[in-house]
Automatic annotation (TrEMBL):
InterPro entries: Auxin_biosynth/cation_transpt (IPR050982), FAD/NAD-bd_sf (IPR036188). Pathway: Plant hormone metabolism; auxin biosynthesis. It comes from the Eukaryota. Its cofactor is FAD. It comes from Mikania micrantha (bitter vine). This is indole-3-pyruvate monooxygenase. SUPFAM superfamilies: FAD/NAD(P)-binding domain (SSF51905).
Amino acid sequence: MGSCEKDNIFMKPAGPIIVGAGPSGIAVAACLKENGIPSLVLERSDCIASLWQYKTYDRLKLHLPKHFCELPLFGYPKNFPKYPTKKQFVSYMEAYANHFEIRPKFNQTVVSAEFDSEHGVWRVETQDSVYESRWLVVATGENAEAVVPEIQGIEKFEGVVKHTSEYKSGCEFTNQRVLVVGCGNSGMEVSLDLCRYNASPFMVVRNSVHVLPREMFGMTTFGIAIALLKWLPLKLVDKLILFMANLKLGNTDKLGLRRPKTGPLELKNATGKTPVLDTGALSLIKSGNIKVVEQGVREVTRNGAKFMDGQEIAFDSIVLATGYKSNVPFWLKGSDFFTKNGMLKTPFPNGWRGENGLYTVGFTRRGLLGTACDALKIANEVTCQCRPMSGDSKLEFRSK
Ligand SMILES: Cc1cc2nc3c(=O)[nH]c(=O)nc-3n(C[C@H](O)[C@H](O)[C@H](O)COP(=O)(O)OP(=O)(O)OC[C@H]3O[C@@H](n4cnc5c(N)ncnc54)[C@H](O)[C@@H]3O)c2cc1C
Ligand SMILES: *[C@@H]1O[C@H](CO)[C@@H](O)[C@H](O)[C@H]1NC(C)=O
Ligand SMILES: *[C@@H]1O[C@H](CO)[C@@H](O)[C@H](O)[C@H]1NC(C)=O
């Protein structure tokens, strides 16, 4: 059935349509609001920052120090610790949205957005409504959907299988042997959390990975990297960071965590792969509480897994720490601004503006720091386009 046959609600909001009420979407709406420009935020979930509220584990704290994770115009409360907890971060987001009076429209899943060149507007369809605006801001995030790999035999497994987006705490895994697939920040932290609940995690590490200390010499590793990058080329900064990391952590290769040939910052820039910032998992790997399995999983059986080298181990549960992906290709039509994986073709810092009033925020692979940067640029440009059109006081938005 075509969309025209549905009993659709049709709306032409004043100002841009922003898809996604995560930190990125809220930040753009706030920066626009500050300039007197209204916007409409469409969100599939029933709250703001739904990734943080619904899809993260209880023990999560910001990975980076708070001043690198601040949204524009309204900072963290002074009494927040250096690494705010998930609860604190969510309360910050709520205070932020309240401060700028951002009220997203919830339960609106954008299923299609396409530029209508005849009328010069973006036509945005959700499951039950159609919206039109001159501006479309894509803020659905780099982590919109869980990546769940196909593993042979997994349907036969009798225990629990969970993606990290559904993992809350190790509480339900007490005394279990748990296969953790993936060794990024999530895999490491879930393994750490499992140990605290007396479970035995076996972490599959198939690829190489950079593990760095979260802090070195009383400073945050991220802060050191940013400071050094102001003066030194990236490759040299990588060398220095790795030198210091090896002093502090020892040779991680010996633990089964092989370092990639490319340095951590260069790799991040080239592929988006984030280094792991260690929050305690490494010492549990050293002590043998977290077991590193250097073989890929060949197949899952009724009660365990067979690995590539033929070894078979019994497990009670499986946690897939296999990451997330963008969902932009599923709903943004007729634009070649994104790759087929839903990431930007244009590298930072130029990816925030597409054609025909298309904008993107939060696709820089630079976390909330990138979001803050994009949000201000978008708001300033849209504001410039609105002002000449406004009458004495009341803004008016018309299609061509
Ligand atoms: C475990 C974890 C820890 C992290 N820690 C940090 C950190 O310490 N520092 C940091 O800077 N970054 C961190 N990040 C990265 C984090 O994702 C971003 O910083 C931040 O959440 C990005 O905000 P966003 O608004 O771009 O995306 P999201 O927070 O993912 O928000 C996107 C919103 O869009 C909505 N949406 C998606 N598709 C649609 C659709 N079709 N229609 C309508 N709505 C839709 C989603 O429901 C969601 O609410 C972490 C990520 C994870 C998973
Ligand atoms: C969300 O939208 C769907 C489809 O329009 C509707 O059936 C459902 O009741 C809505 N849920 C809430 C919580 O409003
Ligand atoms: C970072 O990546 C971009 C391409 O995405 C490349 O053009 C640039 O040279 C890289 N920077 C460094 C310092 O490697």
